[in-house]
Amino acid sequence: MKLQVGGLYSYPNPRIIYTDYKGTSSIAFMEANEPFAFLEKTFVEWTRVEAYKVLTSQGVVGWVHIGYPEDLKELSHG
Questions:
Q1: Nearest to 52 by CA among 41, 36, 67
Q2: Domains in the chain and their CATH numbers?
Q3: pLDDT tens digits, 16-32
Q4: What is the end-to-end Cα distance of the chain in Å, rounded?
Q5: What span, in angstroms and rounded, lies between the C-alpha atoms of 41 and 46?
Q6: Does residue 38 have a pLDDT over 80?
Q7: 51 neighbors 64 (Cβ within 8 angstroms)
């Protein structure tokens, strides 16, 4: 699935939210299936996962690691 910047998505597993794509420091926690807006994506080579910059429903902007991007679910806009 090609994600659209600003699109709303959810992921079926809880995620730790980090300050950067490397996962240097955690800043928050995202619940399973919590909606988030997609902002940016990069590949974290040494971990073999994708890192997504997100805006959570709680107003937190940060990075989450997604190991199974095929499990992302696009949410409808209304």
A1: 41
A2: 8-69 (2.30.30.40)
A3: 999 999 999 999 999 99
A4: 20
A5: 16
A6: yes
A7: yes
Quick check: 3 and 76 in contact, CB under 8 A? no
CA 18 to chain centre: 10
Extract the tokens encoding 55. 């805006």
78: CB partners within 8 A, 6+ apart: none
**Strand-pair partners of 44:** 49
Sign of CA dihedral 21, 38, 27, 17: negative
Q: What pTM, to 2 d.p., does this model score?
A: 0.90
Residue type, 8: L
